[in-house]
Amino acid sequence: MKTKLLLSTLLLSIFAISGFSHGTEKHDNNEKKVVQKKEPSVNDNSEKSLEIKKALKEKETVLQNKYKKINEEYLENIKPIFEAKCFNCHSSTTNYPFYYKIPGVKNMIDKDIKEAKKHIDFSKDFLFISHETPINDLKSLNKIGQKGGMPPLRYIVAHWDSKLSKKDKESMIEWTKNAIELLGEK
Ligand code: HEC
Questions:
Q1: What is the pTM of this model?
Q2: Where is the signal peptide, in residue numbers (predicted)?
């Protein structure tokens, strides 16, 4: 009994030691790998990585400038349309209609606004708050300009003056077309 115990302790120790040393060996290898990987990364100050950093920064600036330009056109030509016809659902400035207080209606409107803002929120101008990419937002808005669909019909019924006019739609198509082209997509 005693020898068995001694033997298994011995075996366990051997396993432990060999396991340990093996582990250290591996660890060493890993460290070597990490060091090797680090060399071409952007985190050091080698000439190459500085170049990469500079290029990335330039690209970012170009993109930001494009967004700025798109927003300028938005503010001038599109925002007034959206304020009149979309902001009640897609922004933090909702003018509740008089019938909001009618039981049942409140729930429906609240749900609409919540759902609408989840998709796209115009409160902060372009870039819009959205779970989509800017380019996809522009494409959705282009589609609405071409095919309609917003505001929802039930809303137009209640607000006869909220329908997008032909001119509104043309402005939306023009703005989104320019923006999509500027961002280099079709
Ligand atoms: C009565 C509230 C309401 C108004 C007003 C409204 N929307 Fe919406 N909008 C919604 C809701 C609800 C959704 C999400 C579900 C859906 O697509 O019907 C939505 C979704 C969207 C989406 C994302 C989905 C898609 O179609 O690609 C866009 C973009 C959009 N609306 C644009 C607009 C624009 C532009 C206007 C103004 C011309 C507008 N909406 C007016 C309620 C509204």
A1: 0.77
A2: 1-23
